[in-house]
Amino acid sequence: MTIAHDQYLKYITPEVMDDTLAFHAKGNYTIHRSTQHISTLHNIPSKTLEKLTGNELPLNVFTNSSNHTALSLSTLPANHCLRRNDSCPHFPGHTIAFDTVRSLLAPLLKKNELSYKIGYPSGGALYPVEVFCINLHNKIDHWPTQSNALHLLPSSQTFEAHTPTIDIDKLSRAIVPDCSNIGSPALAIAYFIYLPKALFKYRYRGYRLALMERGSMYMLTDLRCKELGLEGRPWSGFTDHEVTNGLNLNPALFLPACIQLVG
């Protein structure tokens, strides 16, 4: 069943919407080459940052569990299907085929015609995360539409062409700023929380559920990248309003929670 997106707005409490937007805004920051020489995210010394990165957090300081063989675990074999590849540190700029993009999104589609269930868990089956596939700098061969952004319709198992007025060069720079050093990915998968769907039933709790769902989606896609021989990485090095405006979306309703780069 298809529901117009504005139907959810009838059941939203304005205070919940305003509070969630204000909280989400606290996690925003601006990345721009004109201010990169005077901007800093933190003042933690490099040695301290290195020491604090990549560690576990033991809570029982009186015993050392590593001495108890009965408690030890084993990692997945190197060739196991659930052992993900490392995130790609630098994309060399290869093109990929649109048919590969279609295969990549298969885990995010409706599982069968007899149910509304989709290939990832969603609290209350609300599916408040909207997925956009973006042809960065026109690096995807045989892209089927004039618009360089496609919106995934997982129940219909298809894409819909997003607005054709997108400036793809501007949007590509918003997603991968010039000051980044990760190379040139071909595809960006943008996961947007559509707030009315996230909040109308579970209110504030719905925002948390949407973040959980987003994580499930990009982990499935990450494993699918490995299966298809693609490089990928989750990406948060963007400015929210530049990406949202670049896709001609309403920033009061659509929140970019994460972008996944593929090449």
Low-confidence stretches: none
Q: Please give the largest β-sheet.
A: 6 strands, antiparallel
| Annotation, overall tally of beta strands | 8
* Structural class by sheet pairing and helices: alpha+beta
Number of discrete helical segments: 7
Helix and strand succession? HHEHEEEEHEHHEHE
Question: Strands of the biggest beta sheet: in what spatial order?
Answer: 5-4-2-6-8-7
- β-strand percent reads 15-25%
Structural Rg: 20 Å
Average pLDDT confidence is 91
| Overall body shape | globular
Helix content: 25-40%
How far apart are the first and last residues' alpha carbons, in Å?
A: 34 Å
Provide a concise account of the structure shown.
The protein has 263 residues and is of the alpha+beta class.
Question: How would you describe this protein?
Answer:
The protein has 263 residues and is α+β, with helices and mostly antiparallel strands. 27% of the residues lie in helices and 16% in strands. It contains 7 helices and 8 strands, in the order H-H-E-H-E-E-E-E-H-E-H-H-E-H-E. It has helices at 14-25, 46-52, 98-104, 168-175, 195-199, 204-228, 240-246, and strands spanning 96-97, 129-135, 140-141, 149-153, 158-161, 187-194, 232-235, 254-262. The chain has a 6-stranded antiparallel β-sheet, with helices on both faces. The radius of gyration is 20 Å and the shape is globular. It starts with 13 loop residues before the first helix and ends with a strand.
Question: What would the keywords be for this entry?
Answer:
two-stranded parallel ribbon; 8 strands; 7 helices; alpha+beta; 263 residues
